[in-house]
Amino acid sequence: MPVSLSPIQLLQALPLASGQSLPCRILPGPMHGVTEGSFLRVMTERCWTRCWWTPFLRISTAVPRPARLRNWLKPYLDTGLPVIAQIMGCSSSKLAAAAKALHDIGCLCVDLNCSCPSATVIGNGGGGACLQEPGWIRDTIMAMRENCPGKVISVKIRAGFDSSAELPAILAAIREAAPDFVTLHYRCVSEMYRPITQGLQRLKLARELLPELPLVGSGDLFTAADAIQMQQQCGVDAVAPARGLLANPALLQHISLYCQGKEVPQLTEQDKLRFLCDLAESKESSPNTPNGFLLRFCASLMGQTSNTFQELLKRPKLLESYNYLQQRCQDMAANQQQRITS
Ligand SMILES: Cc1cc2nc3c(=O)[nH]c(=O)nc-3n(C[C@H](O)[C@H](O)[C@H](O)COP(=O)(O)O)c2cc1C
After folding, report:
1. What is the domain partition of the chain in residue ranges?
2. Model confidence at 2, in pLDDT bands (50, 70, 90)?
3. What backbone torsions phi and psi does residue 83 show, to the nearest 5 degrees?
4. In the predicted model, what is the mean pLDDT of residues 15-42?
5. Distances in Å between the alpha carbon of 253 and those of 33, 47, 49, 129, 248?
6. Please, which residues have CB within 8 angstroms of residue 218's CB and are 6 or more apart in sequence?
7. Residue 285: its pLDDT value, please?
8. pLDDT at 165
9. CATH second-level architecture of 7-259?
């Protein structure tokens, strides 16, 4: 299939078979331990994303009660943006029941995780382990669809469990179930997060094998140019950068500017400090919470050798980290003001 897509298309809403649509085609890839807590508020306030995609919720022994599901989804729904709620598990009927409950609470889409490579998840037969049974994936999507008529259902996969040779059979099963969209992280489960060379070819193959289903591409999208290259070379309908958001939380916005042919600004030192400071502001957690989440962002935004990272290491509680960052932001603003007036 010849691919000739304009980057501008990534700025449009993505219409789906259920009659609804995704608000945009530049999506924040779900990340357990990252796309949570204060990150949601800080990103939403800056308009750096136009929707949210939750990390997976494991549906194991029983479908959680509606109150628990509502509690889990609340931080995402509270942003006011459309939400893709991701679930994982082994029981098709429980997953279908959970999908209905989550749709009733108000998410835009329920996404089935068949991609997680964590040893614990695989050991429990969920996530990426499901790729070994394409028929199960088909039946589960169908059960979710049947339980949620007219609602958006999607699936996130990797290119195979052991090998990408499994991809055609996986896609054939998914095509039969016809979810509203499919997300492919182009690595196999066995490849974890190691560098691979065939990623874009795998996505291109998926495009050929799923001609009528919206396809979201995932894998090593660290810059706006990476996103456009994936769209152009593979013909994906949408992109979902994940780890790139740690190094550049404005990445989705930067991809959007790039698509419009506009200049893409670099985040300044002040932008980064302000971002970290807002992240540390403990509206969502107690001030005594350890600052591990913050340190992780600081390491990828500024580097572990940066003065800021070293100073945060000395202040392991969120509140003391916040006070430090707040002071740094104030000093920086005062210096700037002085430079303007002198
Ligand atoms: C820390 C971390 C947590 C993740 N958690 C999830 C998750 O809960 N659900 C999911 O579908 N993918 C998850 N992913 C996978 C990402 O969404 C994405 O598919 C993968 O990282 C490849 O994209 P990237 O190279 O742009 O990071 C996670 C990735 C990372 C690094």
Report:
1. 7-259, 269-341
2. very low
3. -125, 130
4. 96
5. 22, 8, 7, 34, 10
6. 29, 156, 183, 184, 185, 186, 239, 240, 241, 242
7. 73
8. 98
9. Alpha-Beta Barrel (3.20)
Average pLDDT over residues 89-115: 98
Residue among 279, 227, 215 at smallest CA distance from 251: 227
- Which pLDDT does position 338 carry in this prediction? 86
Please tell me the predicted confidence (pLDDT) of residue 208. 98
Name the closest-CA residue to atom 4, ligand 1: 31
Residues 106/77, Cβ–Cβ less than 8 Å: yes
Q: Which two structure tokens, joined as six digits, stand for 72? A: 């889990």
CA of 31 relative to ligand 1 center, distance in Å: 5
Burial 11-20 (b: 16+ CB within 10 A, else e): ebebebebeb
Give per-residue pLDDT as tens, 161-219. Answer: 999 999 999 999 999 999 999 999 999 999 999 999 999 999 999 999 999 999 999 99
CA 158 to ligand 1 center in whole angstroms = 11
Cα dihedral across residues 125, 126, 129, 135: positive or negative: positive
Q: Which residues form ligand 1's pocket by a CB distance below 6 Å?
A: 29-34, 55-56, 86, 113, 115-116, 156, 185, 218-221, 241-244
